[in-house]
Design brief:
Elements (H helix, E strand, L loop, with lengths): L7 E6 L3 H11 L4 E7 L3 H11 L3 E3 L2 H5 L6 E4 L7 H9 L3 E5 L6 H14 L3 E4 L6 H11 L6 E10 L2 H6 L8 H4 L1 H12 L5 E7 L11 E7 L4 E7 L10 E9 L3 E5 L7 E3 L2 E3 L7 E3 L2 E3 L1 H13 L9 H20 L6
């Protein structure tokens, strides 16, 4: 329906926590219609379809992609299971938004991008923080020349140990690098506007050793004009008031920008203790879904309709996986490597 004006028929594949947020976002968009959902647990697909008034549900991405009413597919399966549903959708001529990271193997990300080019369809990656107002505002300031040019950045995104231990049943199939640094590596590359020339990284593994994944990682990304230091941990105390800690400092030739989204300007103390509710990504305001995830989905629909060009290209997704693989390789080899 590229260039069309009608409502876009959307299918969502993968109905875990993130997939359900996509379901709710699509249901609130007047320019889109959620026509089908799919999950390998067909019982879950049935339950979600019934709960959200979706007409059709499937037990596989292939079946959903054979549905003629589906124009665009959102893939929200676990990190390591993006390839098959994305390729099924692309081969069926569907436009695709896939969750970050695009893949956990560069060969898979490259194949996806090549297939999208071959089919002439949109393939974008949900780097949702490009739609998160504080981070998007920093990019706008850079484009307007208010801050000058980036020199160095520090970006920290960490989770409590709840995430790898209890939230993700598939934590051993990804890592703190792919799950968290996919966000921060994309922001660094977006701000500097240059390829990463070299990566030097180190990791530590104690608490999550039984999962075969590192507890934490730090990486220096070298650009032509500066560097970014990325830091991520998966072992913050579960008693922390926020499930994540997300901070940015970007020093430029004319100024500095600092972002702290851990608190989002609200804290609550109740019988459970101190906590920081997170509302910017997805919240209900007077019964309506709001937040930057919804805006990312809205933008994808506008691209399918030909009213916008993707803020995130398939090539952005591929470059991100290149950087993540380089971080993992540098950790393993103990030396700087080129992506």
């Amino acid at each position: 329906m590229r260039g069309g004006v009608g409502r876009v028929g959307v299918g969502v594949v993968g109905l875990g926590n993130q997939g359900l947020l996509h379901v709710e976002a699509v249901k609130q968009l007047p320019e889109a219609e959620l026509v089908a959902v799919a999950d390998v647990d067909v019982g879950r697909a049935r339950s979600v379809a019934e709960a959200y008034g979706v007409g059709r549900y499937y037990g596989s991405a292939r079946e959903l992609c054979e549905d003629a009413g589906v124009d665009a597919v959102i893939v929200a399966t676990p990190d390591h299971l993006h390839y098959e549903p994305v390729m099924a959708a692309l081969r069926a001529g569907k436009h695709v938004m896939v969750e970050k990271p695009m893949a956990t193997r560069l060969s898979e990300a490259t194949a996806m991008a090549e297939e999208a080019r071959r089919r002439g369809v949109i393939l974008t990656v949900n780097f949702e923080n490009r739609f998160n107002p504080p981070f998007a505002h920093v990019r706008e300031l850079l484009e307007r020349g208010v801050l000058g040019d980036p020199i160095h950045a520090y970006i920290r995104l960490s989770d409590t140990v709840y995430v790898p231990r209890r939230m993700l049943s598939w934590a051993r199939e990804t890592s703190v690098i792919f799950f968290l640094m996919s966000h921060t590596a994309d922001l660094a590359r977006w701000y500097f506007g240059e390829p990463v020339r070299e990566v030097y990284a180190a990791s530590a593994s104690r608490l999550l050793r039984d999962l075969g994944v590192p507890d934490a990682c730090a990486a220096v990304l070298r650009f032509e004009s500066g560097f970014a230091l990325l830091e991520s941990s998966w072992v913050l105390p579960e008693a922390s008031p926020s499930i994540f800690d997300f901070k940015l400092e970007l020093v430029c030739t004319k100024g500095v920008a600092r972002v702290d989204t851990e608190r989002e300007s609200i804290e609550v103390v109740d019988a459970t203790g101190l906590r920081y509710p997170h509302l910017a990504k997805h919240a209900r305001v007077h019964g309506l879904v709001a937040g930057f995830l919804r805006e990312a989905v809205r933008h994808f629909i506008a691209c399918v309709q030909g009213r916008a060009e993707p803020v995130v290209s398939a090539e952005d997704g591929v470059e991100n996986v290149k950087i993540l693989e380089a971080i993992a390789r540098s950790c393993s080899e103990g030396r700087p490597v080129a992506p």
